[in-house]
């Protein structure tokens, strides 16, 4: 019997021969048939493929959003660290000038 499954990488459905319908039987490619992977009609397979693609898009959109948020936080921390380094270096130069001036005054 013909059944239909899908390939998310190629974005298409695949027609497969199955000796017996449903779990735990395998299709001609050796894949176990599940209710959410093998369908009786092409329309059902297309619907599942499109739902899977939409889910992937949603997950990856959220991932990118989170990464952008984390990147912005990291860039802020980087800028704060640069300011702290600049401040510390300037304070050190002032300290050295103060020490040198004090040493000159005590000679």
Structure description:
- The protein has about 110 residues and is mainly alpha-helical.
- The protein has one domain.
- The protein is built from 1 helix and 2 strands; from the N terminus they run E-E-H.
- The protein has a two-stranded antiparallel ribbon with strand order 1-2.
- A hairpin with a 4-residue loop joins strand 1 (about 1-5) and strand 2 (about 10-15).
- The radius of gyration is 32 Å and the shape is rod-shaped.
- The N and C termini lie far apart (about 105 Å).
Mean pLDDT: 96
* Percent range for β-strand residues: 5-15%
Share of residues in helices: 55-70%
Spans of at least 5 consecutive residues with low confidence? none
Which outline best applies?
rod-shaped
Counting H and I runs of at least 4 residues, what is the number of helices? 1
Rg result: 32 Å
| Sheet with most strands: strand arrangement | 1-2
Report the end-to-end length measured between terminal Cα atoms. 104 Å
Structural class call reads mainly alpha
Largest sheet: 2 strands, antiparallel
N-to-C SSE series? EEH
Oligomeric state of the chains in view: single chain
Number of strands: 2
Number of domains: 1
